[in-house]
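Subject: complex prediction, re-run

Hi both,

The earlier run crashed halfway through, so I resubmitted it with identical inputs.
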Amino acid sequence: MGLSLKNMQKKVDGEIHLTNINLDFESGSRNVILGRTLSGKTSLLRLMAGLDRPTKGQLLLDGKDITGMSVRKRSIAMVYQQFINYPSFTVYDNIASPLKVSKMDKKEIDRRVQEAAHMLHLEEMLDRLPSELSGGQQQRTAIARAIVRDAELLLLDEPLVNLDYKLREELQIELQEIFKKRESIVVYTTTEPAEALMLGGNIVVLDEGRVLQTGSTPDVYHHPATTKVAEVFSDPPINYISCDLKESQIQLGGGVAFPLSGRLKTLSDASYKLGVRSNHFYLRRKNDEDIRLTVKVELAEINGSETFIHADFNGERIVIQEVGIYSRKIGSEIEVYVNPSRFFVYSDTGQLVMSPS
Amino acid sequence: MNKWEDNKAWFLVLPVFVIVAFSAILPLMTVVNYSIQDIFGPGERVFVGLEWFEEVLADPRLHEALMRQFLFSGLVLLIEIPLGIGIALLMPKKGWGASLSLVLMALPLLIPWNVIGTIWIVFTRPDIGLFGSFINGIGIPFDHTASPIQAWITLILMEVWHWTPLVVLLAYAGLRAIPEAYFQAAKIDGASAWAVFKYIQLPKMRGVLTIALLLRFMDSFLIYAEPFVLTGGGPGNTTTFLSIYLVKIAVGQFDLGPAAAFSLIYFLIILLLSWLFYQVLQNAGKGDA
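This time it finished cleanly. Structure:
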């Protein structure tokens, strides 16, 4: 039971926006669609909502074909990047609006509106107009309007992207609670790996209109099937170091080599790409097994309580993310350490060979 | 402490002050000056107090002109605002159709006002005018120089043709500024086209419509060139609006005192009504973003 997308394709003016989309969403499941800007996230949501018709393919709800069904007849709620509320309605009337259209009993409407307002901490704001609210409260109103009707499909299109980070964190936590209580299929799009991880559930990694990988969110994070998935699902993007495996030694550029150890021993001789997440580089040795790389600093930025050092290692650009504040001179050579057990090993063609245990 | 004695900043506002003084304040004060004196010639003037105001306010022909002016502006606004919104809603949203309709809409606004009058004189001539001869052709005798009703119809048609495009352009800009997501949200809610218009488009257009209403009220209340050219205030006095009557007093009869008093009253009426419109619109459906 749930929503299935079968071989869906969307072309606009001959340009392919989405292709070969085969996805299943179960009732009561939480799903994240992760992808960069213009990867097709919004197009996909619009197809699922029925706001657009697919060029090819079918949309099935509980096994029934609903591809051509009008939006009005479907049971959908949607939250957008922009804060969309009826400008001349109070918060109460805004939340009640989808229920009023369906001609529900007045008392039931009131009960549901109060419940939704309570969940989103809007009790005090019910008499206000949207323009009298802060951005966060406006989006809370929009979310309350979306959850009030218990739609079969609850779509959220980067709902927190226009909020400042404090509000975003606050709502991320609250949303998880709200989603848990739903029986509907929740689909949430985001560009941020951290947000995807926080929401958990299942994930669809989308890039250039194609589905790259699906699965449970932590699972995909730990085992990104291709270099592309790893790039989309890391922030800052994952670093790659090319290497050759010869004579039981991994040879990086610039004469750096280290012997195979642990699980790496099972690899056969070939060229590989080693993927390292930025937070797995350290400025200090942590462990005896750590290998040392000498890199040239190109840029050092301090972001809150973290330092990001952009550096060059044999012509390959890497980013080191270290907790704490460090200053490193631009152009200077520094040493960074990484534990070989942290390597994602990808084949030359970008397929995952081995992920960190 | 020295802060209050340092008046150099006045020099910075001086240019603006001089320009405003010469373009607005001095002419206005001259009018005020004229309105309370009887002027026979250079250096020969008598202070008359409020005499001219009393005379003008008691003038029955001014009352008639004022009533005509209200009727004209009222009719024009009642037609132009809804018609303008309607056309803006029907206009294509993108592509060459949008550009074409915008250009077509802008055309009447580019024509000098007295030329508009001339165009409509020719257009409505019963013998050779496209409109006039057509109406006569279908059996209705048409001559706006003879029938007051037909003169009014012609004037209002001309005004609507000339100025509705301004309302259209403003409303269109207001509509285009509404994010697409509003319409999607309404669609998902199952809202009807009427509900979308009433609860999304109209509240979102309130700002531009306020401007459209104010501009159209002021301009139609001040209308001069077009009726002057088309009807000259006739037949009889039936299309003599305030500004036409004012010019008759000031230039035709050279009664500068009463004309000045009249001008001030005219100015105050427009100021008062514009303020009223503005207040009403600001308070209607308050709080729309």
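Chain B is about 75% helix and 5% strand.

- K.
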